[in-house]
Amino acid sequence: MNNFDSIAPVYDALAKVVFWGGIERANRFFLSEIPSGSRMLIVGGGSGKILEDLAELYDDLQIVYVESSKGMIDRAKQRKSGVNQITFVHASFPQVTIQPQEFDVVMGPFFFDLFDAGSLLLILETVRYVLKHSGLLLVSDFRMEEKRGWHRWLSWSMHGFFRCVAKLQSEKLRDLDTEIISAGFAPKKQRCFYGKFIFAAVYQYTGNL
Ligand SMILES: C[S@@+](CC[C@H](N)C(=O)[O-])C[C@H]1O[C@@H](n2cnc3c(N)ncnc32)[C@H](O)[C@@H]1O
Prior knowledge:
With about 210 residues, the chain is α/β, with parallel strands linked by helices. It has one domain (about 10-205): Rossmann fold, CATH 3.40.50.
């Protein structure tokens, strides 16, 4: 399930063409919210463009980069990622050993939409477990408004395409914002892109669940 190896060589170019750079813009938008010196977990970062974006803003982050595709993580290792300290982990989240409250920030860029409801819940519970009290969760992903026909069409096409090429686990686009909030994260900031089909958001784990 969710195997991006075959599409790794063309994923970034394809995403750029289809979404007119909206994916990169969303991934970058809230990076300045990260406190300097943070210990940060990035899950499903893909080919690592985000590491270059972080290097433009920070030189003192400690980043753990968990990515399940070898094709993607090999590309990420080639990025000019500045002097931030990066530990690459080729593994499937949440099947990784991480200590409780190890991170100030967790980021999942176009990651949470890959999963069915049960797996998403387990992933969010693990994110809660590894985040420090008041830690931040940065999410960029797709969203759908039922009343917009083209949102429904694009979501259906993307799921069909990625089910074929990457054995996508998710069968439909979930309302990620609602599910993340229900899992105990308080919304702090949100911004939409690409005709509101893409969002970037910052949540804070308040430790109430
Ligand atoms: C849709 S791509 C997003 C890539 C990149 N973050 C971006 O914004 O363009 C999802 C990425 O998550 C990775 N992935 C999927 N399941 C994963 C898992 N369980 N643990 C870690 N990475 C995973 C895939 O290999 C892929 O690189």
